[in-house]
Structures are given as C-alpha cells and as structure tokens.
C-alpha cells in the first residue's frame, strides 16, 4: 500500500482531508483516528503533527506527505516538494519596532525570535548577516516587548496583530508558503501508485479552477466566440436543429467565467450556462 502522511490538526488538516476526499480517498471519521486504511485504493493514511511529516517522509517509512512548504524547509529533512496544492498560503516576514531596522542588512549583532529557526538561520546566512536566532513557540511578537529579541520572524497575513503590538513589517518576504505534497529525496519518481495519487490531486486542482461552459451561437460569430472560449485543446462544437446555430462546450477559468459570459452575450450567444467540474484528468 501507498503510505501517506496527512496533517492531524492545524490550518492544513481540514483542507488536506477535504482535497483527499474530493480525489476519491477514504478519510478518517473522527479526529482521534491516527491511521485510516483505504483498501479499495490501496492507500494507508497516517495523521501526524504537520511539523513531523517531513521527517517521517525523509526516513522512508512513509512514501508521501502533505505539509507546508515552510515546515518542509524549516525541518531540513531530506525531502522535496513535488506538487503545490493552492491552500494554506502564508507569507513569512521580519518585523520590529519602527526605527530599529529596515531589513536584514541592519540585523548584525541582533537577536531574532521565531518559531522557524531553520528558515531564518538559512536566510541570514544567505544575506551574510551575523545575528542570533532564538526559538519560541507561538506569539513571538511578545519577544520584543519582553526584551528577548530585537526582531521577530513570523507568518504575516494582514499585519494587524503586529501593528497592535507596535511593530512594523520590514524587508522583503523571507518565504511564501502553501500546502505541498512531498516525497523523500531520491525516491522513485515513476512509482505507479504515487503517480496515480498525484494525478488525482492534480485533477482536483483543475476541477476547482475551471467550470464547464455551454452556449448557443450563430455560425457567423463562431470564430469570435471560440476565441473567448478556446478550451484546453479546442471546444466541442455541435450543429443545432435550428439552421445557422451551433452549440459550443468548453472549459473556462472559473475566475473569468462571468466576464466571458458577458462577452459572449454581446456576440449574440444565448443559453449560456456554467456547471461545476467535480473531477477530471488532463
């Protein structure tokens, strides 16, 4: 069986299980379950702490894992990212009190507090900065107030909590993270079970990003309409009983669907419909 690590809690847990369910895999029914066996698909899921997943996968005990890019890089484990999953996005940045520094070049001799010391130490080394890194779990912004550090490095979304603590974001982002699929360095990239698993997840990603659009258009406007809805290879075009009209079907990006419908209507298209895609293979 293919052995896969899944986050057991935190912001990645729910979306990861939801995506796996959409991909046709059986998932646990209760949060206390540590292992779920999907006999039909020949997959065994292990629910682990997100920070530990890269370590388990790198050891070779598990074949594949779903974790955050930040957690993978911070672990230093011998594992690699093979597919980005488009959820769990976050930006990792430095912050400090106004006037303390403008970027890493000003950090010499300072102490940086973070929950991701592996990422920060590597970034400081790449910048040629001689600074100390102290590990803290959670609420690292308090480190500056208590004098433990002059700078913090943490996940930043809106920056509201930092501003409330009297801090400002400085410098360029250290890292942009999201949920990713990982495997051990040197693992067989052509393993059939792993490839099938990746195809299923890729199918979910495409299904979430596209909708199927159907519409009727007069023949003389067909080329203009097809230019708006080229599909992946080309759209399906079928003659209608009413002479001079054809029916067109094509996949279009979901975020552009409303604009495309407006443009088609202006061309004279009618009966314009969109439907969700639940699964696909490209």
TrEMBL record:
Pfam (any one): HisG_C
Activity regulation description: Feedback inhibited by histidine.
Domain ATP phosphoribosyltransferase catalytic positions: 49-203
Keyword Glycosyltransferase: yes
Known pathway: Amino-acid biosynthesis; L-histidine biosynthesis; L-histidine from 5-phospho-alpha-D-ribose 1-diphosphate: step 1/9
Cofactor or coenzyme needed: Mg(2+)
Catalytic function, reaction form: 1-(5-phospho-beta-D-ribosyl)-ATP + diphosphate = 5-phospho-alpha-D-ribose 1-diphosphate + ATP
Main location: cytoplasm
Keywords attached to this entry: Amino-acid biosynthesis, ATP-binding, Cytoplasm, Glycosyltransferase, Histidine biosynthesis, Magnesium, Metal-binding, Nucleotide-binding, Transferase
A GO molecular function held by the record: ATP phosphoribosyltransferase activity
Top-level lineage group: Bacteria
Function in brief: Catalyzes the condensation of ATP and 5-phosphoribose 1-diphosphate to form N'-(5'-phosphoribosyl)-ATP (PR-ATP). Has a crucial role in the pathway because the rate of histidine biosynthesis seems to be controlled primarily by regulation of HisG enzymatic activity.
Recorded family membership: Belongs to the ATP phosphoribosyltransferase family. Long subfamily.
Protein name: ATP phosphoribosyltransferase
Species for this entry: Streptomyces bambusae
The organism's taxonomic lineage, starting at the top: Bacteria, Bacillati, Actinomycetota, Actinomycetes, Kitasatosporales
């Amino acid at each position: 069986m293919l052995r896969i690590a899944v986050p057991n809690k935190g912001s990645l847990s729910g979306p990861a299980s939801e995506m796996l369910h959409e991909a046709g895999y059986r998932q646990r029914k209760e949060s206390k379950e540590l292992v779920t066996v999907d006999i039909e698909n020949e997959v065994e899921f292990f629910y682990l702490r997100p920070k530990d997943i890269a370590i388990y996968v790198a050891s070779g005990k598990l074949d594949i894992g779903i974790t955050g890019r930040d957690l993978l890089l911070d672990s230093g484990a011998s594992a690699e990212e093979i597919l980005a999953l488009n959820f769990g996005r976050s930006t990792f940045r430095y912050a400090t009190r106004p006037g303390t520094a403008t970027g890493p070049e000003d950090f010499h001799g300072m102490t940086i507090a973070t929950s991701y010391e592996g990422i920060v130490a590597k970034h400081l080394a790449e910048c040629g900065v001689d600074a100390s890194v102290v590990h803290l779990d959670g609420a690292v912004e308090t480190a500056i107030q208590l004098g433990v550090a002059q700078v913090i490095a943490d996940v930043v979304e809106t920056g509201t909590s930092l501003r409330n603590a009297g801090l400002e974001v400085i410098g360029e982002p250290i890292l942009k993270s999201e949920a990713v699929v990982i495997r051990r360095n040197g693992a067989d990239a052509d393993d059939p079970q792993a490839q099938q698993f990746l195809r299923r997840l890729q199918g979910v990603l495409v299904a979430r990003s596209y909708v199927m659009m159907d519409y009727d258009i007069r023949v003389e406007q067909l080329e203009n309409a097809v230019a708006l809805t080229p599909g992946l290879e080309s759209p399906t075009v079928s003659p209608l009983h009413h002479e001079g009209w054809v029916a067109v079907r094509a996949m279009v990006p979901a975020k552009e669907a409303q604009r495309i419908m407006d443009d088609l209507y202006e061309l004279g298209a009618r009966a314009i419909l969109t439907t969700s895609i639940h699964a696909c293979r490209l």
